[in-house]
Amino acid sequence: MSKFFCDADCELDYRKIRELNIGLIKMPYTVDGEQALFDCGETTDFKGFFDKMRAGAQVKTQALNEFDYIQYFEPIFAAGEDVIYVSFSHKMSGTFLSLDKALQELKEKYPDRKCTIIDTESISMGAGIIVYYAAKLHNEGATDEQVAEFVESFKKRTVVYFTVDDLVYLKRGGRLSALKAGMGQLLGIKPILSIRDGKLTDVATVKGRKKALHTIIDYMEQSGIDKDYPIILLNADCKDDRDYIADLIKEKFSEAKIVDYEVGPVIGCHCGPDTIGIVYVSK
Q1: CB 232 within 8 A of CB 125
Q2: Across the chain, what does the average pLDDT equal?
Q3: Of the candidates 28, 32, 25, which has an alpha carbon nearest to the alpha carbon of residue 10?
Q4: DSSP state letter for 282
Q5: 107, 200, 150, 102: which is closest to 4 by C-alpha?
Q6: What pLDDT was estimated at residue 177?
Q7: What whole-number distance in Å separates Cα of residue 72 and Cα of residue 95?
Q8: Residue 67 and residue 99 in contact, taking contact as beta carbons nearer than 8 Å
Q9: To 10 degrees, what angle do helices 66-78 and 95-109 make?
Q10: Among 3, 128, 198, 259, which one is most buried in terms of CB atoms within 10 A?
Q11: Is 24 helix (H, G, I), strand (E, B) or coil?
């Protein structure tokens, strides 16, 4: 038997995590030097976090250390079970170096136990939708190998697009140069970004917020959506823009089911308030 784990960077709602009996690895962040752990919404003040960002609070994320991972996994190994962990993209964080060290230590102590780690090569609900269906498969009795095969196939069809309102947060995170950020702000340029091959990718730049939202819908039409799965709409405390793009989705994909999620503080540290994202499964 194995215990299924995910991390809070997948942003799957805590109620779904509890319903599927998933072990949650909470991810750390700080606001003005005060550390917190994101628990996928159970105790999270989403609006309060983004209000603090707008007011100039210093926010940042942190990697877990080796001891943190041991605390999550050792009780499972000690109970005679294996671990299967469907994670956010390994290319986006140094935290997985600590995970490797923790597993090396645990392997020496529990040589008969196994930890299967599967990289979704995505983040936020791009990883979350994969975690959700992988956990359902696991609960239905699939082996760890079968779950891994599913993830490797399903992640190729999972598409993420998002746009930010203020480029300063991408600049702070080192994902945009100061010159590009300054020029972009001056000219009203809005980037459209995606997650490809496990990394943040700049897909296009357009002028104006509404144009960015329409362009994302155009990309969805071009790739085609699989209507057996929901369209996940993410927003970082920007309900009006959420409603605007939801109406665009309904016009183009009348049969699609829209599921709303709020961007959490760990992802929010990097993209900032007023970010809009869409996750869907392509044909």
Answers
A1: yes
A2: 92
A3: 25
A4: B
A5: 150
A6: 43
A7: 14
A8: no
A9: 40
A10: 128
A11: strand
Q: What is the pLDDT of residues 173-192, one digit of tens each?
A: 555 444 344 444 544 678 89
- pTM given for the model: 0.94
CATH topology (fold) of 158-281: Hypothetical Protein Tm841; Chain: A;domain 3 (3.30.1180)
Range list of H helices, the chain:
14-19, 46-54, 66-78, 95-109, 125-139, 144-154, 168-172, 178-187, 209-223, 239-252, 265-271
- Location of structure tokens 């309060």: 48
Tokens of 171: 């600049």
189: left (phi over 0), alpha (psi -120 to 50) or beta: beta
CB 138 within 8 A of CB 122: no
Token readout for 63 is 């990697």
List strands edge to edge, sheet with 276-281: 199-207, 189-196, 158-163, 276-281, 231-235, 258-262
The tokens describing 91, both together, are 């290319």
Tokens of 278: 């869409």
Domain ranges of the chain: 2-154, 158-281
Q: Give the pLDDT confidence of 67-101 residue by residue, as tens digits.
A: 999 999 999 999 999 999 999 999 999 999 999 99
Residue 143's contacts (CB-CB under 8 Å, 6 or more residues apart) are none
Mean pLDDT across 51-67: 95
